[in-house]
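Q: Structure tokens for this one, please.
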Amino acid sequence: MKLRLPFQQHTAETTDFDAGREKACVAESLVRSASRLLEQRNDRDIIHRVCEALTLATPHVRLAWTWFGPVETPCIVPQIVVGPASAYAQKLEIDRSFLTEIGPAFRTLSGKRVEPFNVSRMSLYGPWREAAAMHGIRSAVSLPLASTVNADRGLLALYADVPDYFQQVGIGLFEALADMFSSVLSVAAERTLLREAAYSDALTGLLNRHAVDVVSRPILRSSPLDPPAAVLMIDIDHFKRVNDNHGHACGDLLLCGMADLLRRELRKGDNVLRWGGEEFMVCLAATDIASATLVAHKMREAVAMHRHPLPDGLPMTTTVSIGVADLEIGEPFFVTVERADAALYKAKRQGRNRVCVASGTIDAAPITGTDSVADLRHRPANTD
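A: Here is the predicted structure, written as tokens:
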């Protein structure tokens, strides 16, 4: 008795294939999908639903998958996978090599047109043999995707169980689908740029306070198992005098120089934001209060020693006051910021050019400009 594989009920050998009827089914699924695009906000959801609609509209399109990213990628791994033959694509990894660069995926990514091709159980390429033998794939096509907003490129791969399927139905329909996906990805890229612009300070290039939810979410503490974290609030001392005595252009240069200096002092994974005016906020991940205090004092010393160039060629020095607070378990982030801000203003009231550490609600222990980093490791807690 001859065993029947599951895919055989959908193959050309067992199913009458009507190219005209198939073209109508594909066209109808695309039109219906296009009419619902505005209902979806996420670009991946849109692409997934359209591919799903296509594979449900016809039994002959067995698989659709997409990839999108930088054109120089060393490896293509399907990102969105839909269809009865999904198992094939879910374990597919196409590493860039001499052989794969002449294959359909990387050729499409490089911008070369790849004509639809038939898939054989006798193919020299192992994955193609598996696609044909295990999933009934008889033809495939790889179509380019391109963003009009950035340099990212991608591809849409479609597989059918009928030889010459895409030529018979009409490649134009599937090229239109790729164009639709390119538009979706372009809109998503544009939305990302707008969001980044909204989160970016135009003068310094730092994140601004609108990004606080994004940078605070990874460091919030809900249990004792979460790593410690801390917040620094930093204010440039006597900044108004700079604007009054040297002009706002010099004040802007000082802010930009301060942003660069703070960035250099931070580790990868920490974040510095321009909180407003001459005030900056630093989020320190995986940092306890003692380490955060050392970081704050190191920043204070670095600022005090730095000479900021001015347009007239004369360098200028300045100092900062810093408030430090650690994130307590279950504490809303804005409360931590308020405690760090209270410590900052205590530092300013006590003479500026110093670090104050929040204790409890608004109490703070001052660290003066005469303290060294080594002294901080052994300094007793201030209980005032």
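A few notes: The radius of gyration is 30 Å. Residues 171-199 form the longest helix (29 residues).
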